[in-house]
């Protein structure tokens, strides 16, 4: 195991991301045989597949079924069946079992066996879970659609097919690989190289972990400093979710609450590694109260507006005890109740959750 400490400066603030790299076998322990969250059925960003307790899998966008990535041929593909969520256990990270080579099956006359497997690159070990295989014919049908001939979610499936030329497509999270394979008379063995890794996020304020329901993460390709319009490859990722991505540089946007407590940081995904990223926020949870006297009962049906010193609205809400997560800094607040307007000011210090009382007078 090896640990890194990554420090970046964004908008004048220092952002610390503690990154822990673990082995490919430990990554595979989190990548159970994927539910069809890893197939080409479009799913809402941030949806979660099956995984061990405390670490679910996220299908971040990925191929949509419109084209056969990464092929340059503009082929239409038949969409796979609707997703299921049945998990299948893999060997534990502490004692990974070697993948057994599948035995050559009994092949009927006029058929050929195709044995496939995948690994994280030219040298890393085999991928033992989270794979989705599809076999396509050489030519589209009369409607121009490449329809699936066979599909499997095993780590090293064996396909028995008539002789001919096929396209084999395999996905691992957002990463994928493709080969055209010709079957004649003898068994064919193919190994696919998928340079992909996993990333998992956690948010903290100081030494305190932010509860999972209060924070989410969006992942984008490339560095945050690159120009141009970008769309997230994974959106609304929850704490402890494992996102499987092609090897490369990404930047993560960490959203604590739904106001201005946002941190951006670059990360590096390595093939065959699970990267744990800890994002440190400088923010606090503030509860607002409109009272007639100090320590008094909060007045119901109060409309609230939280503003920056420059007058920009940060958050609006209605209620007696609205809670808002705010980044470190100074704020003003406006409370409206029964046609009257009341004002107040307060300061947010990192990790200091507190109540702010606005006097109704």
Written description of the protein model:
The protein is mainly beta and 361 residues long. It folds into 2 domains: 1-61 and 107-281, Immunoglobulin-like, CATH 2.60.40.2190; 284-359, Immunoglobulin-like, CATH 2.60.40.1120. The protein is 2% helix and 48% strand. It contains 1 helix and 28 strands. The strands form 7 sheets. Strands 1, 2, 3, 4, 14, 15, 18 and 21 form an 8-stranded mixed β-sheet that branches. Strands 9-7-11-12 form a 4-stranded antiparallel β-sheet, with no helix packed on it. 34% of the residues are buried.
Task: State the helicity in percent bands.
Answer: under 10%
Category from helices, strands and their pairing:
mainly beta
Along the chain, the helix and strand elements come as: EEHEEEEEEEEEEEEEEEEEEEEEEEEEE
Separate helix tally: 1
Sketch the major β-sheet: 8 strands, mixed
Indicate how many domains the architecture comprises. Answer: 2
Task: Draw up the topology in text.
Layout: E1 2-10, E2 13-22, H1 24-30, E3 48-49, E4 57-58, E5 76-77, E6 112-119, E7 131-137, E8 145-146, E9 150-152, E10 158-161, E11 164-172, E12 175-183, E13 188-193, E14 196-205, E15 208-209, E16 215-221, E17 234-237, E18 242-246, E19 248-256, E20 261-269, E21 274-280, E22 283-291, E23 303-307, E24 313-318, E25 323-327, E26 329-337, E27 340-348, E28 354-359
Parallel strand pairs: 4-18, 5-8, 6-13, 14-21, 22-28
Antiparallel strand pairs: 1-2, 2-21, 3-4, 6-10, 7-9, 7-11, 11-12, 14-15, 14-18, 16-17, 16-19, 19-20, 22-25, 23-24, 23-26, 26-27
């Amino acid at each position: 195991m090896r640990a890194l400490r990554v420090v970046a400066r964004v908008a004048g603030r220092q952002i610390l991301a503690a990154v822990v790299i673990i082995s490919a076998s430990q990554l595979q322990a989190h990548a159970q045989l994927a539910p069809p969250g890893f197939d080409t059925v479009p799913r809402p960003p941030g949806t979660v597949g099956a995984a061990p307790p405390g670490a679910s899998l996220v299908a971040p966008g990925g191929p949509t079924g419109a084209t056969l990535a990464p092929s340059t041929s503009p082929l239409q593909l038949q969409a796979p069946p609707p997703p299921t969520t049945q998990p299948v256990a893999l060997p534990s990270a502490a004692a990974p079992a070697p993948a057994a080579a599948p035995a050559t099956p009994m092949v009927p006359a006029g058929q050929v066996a195709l044995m496939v497997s995948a690994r994280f690159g030219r040298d890393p070990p085999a991928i033992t879970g989270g794979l989705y295989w599809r076999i396509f014919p050489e030519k589209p049908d009369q409607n121009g659609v490449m329809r699936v001939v066979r599909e499997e979610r095993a780590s090293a499936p064996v396909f028995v097919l008539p002789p001919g030329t096929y396209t084999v497509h395999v996905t691992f999270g957002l990463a994928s690989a493709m080969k055209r394979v010709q079957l004649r008379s003898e068994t064919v063995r193919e190994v696919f190289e998928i340079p992909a890794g996993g990333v998992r996020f956690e948010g903290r304020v100081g030494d305190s972990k932010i509860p999972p329901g209060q924070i989410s993460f969006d992942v984008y390709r490339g560095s945050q400093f690159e120009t141009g319009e970008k769309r997230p490859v994974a959106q609304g990722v929850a704490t402890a979710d494992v996102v499987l991505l092609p090897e490369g540089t990404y930047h993560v946007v960490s959203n604590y609450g739904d106001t201005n407590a946002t941190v951006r940081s670059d990360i590096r995904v390595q093939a065959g590694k699970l990267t744990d990223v800890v994002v440190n926020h400088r923010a606090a949870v503030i509860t607002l109260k409109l009272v007639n006297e100090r320590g008094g009962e909060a007045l119901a049906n109060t409309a609230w507006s939280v503003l920056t010193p420059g007058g920009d609205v940060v958050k609006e809400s209605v209620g007696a005890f609205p809670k808002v997560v705010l980044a470190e800094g100074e704020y003003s607040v406006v409370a409206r109740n029964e046609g009257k307007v009341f004002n107040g000011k307060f300061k947010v210090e990192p990790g200091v959750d507190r109540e702010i009382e606005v006097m109704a007078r």
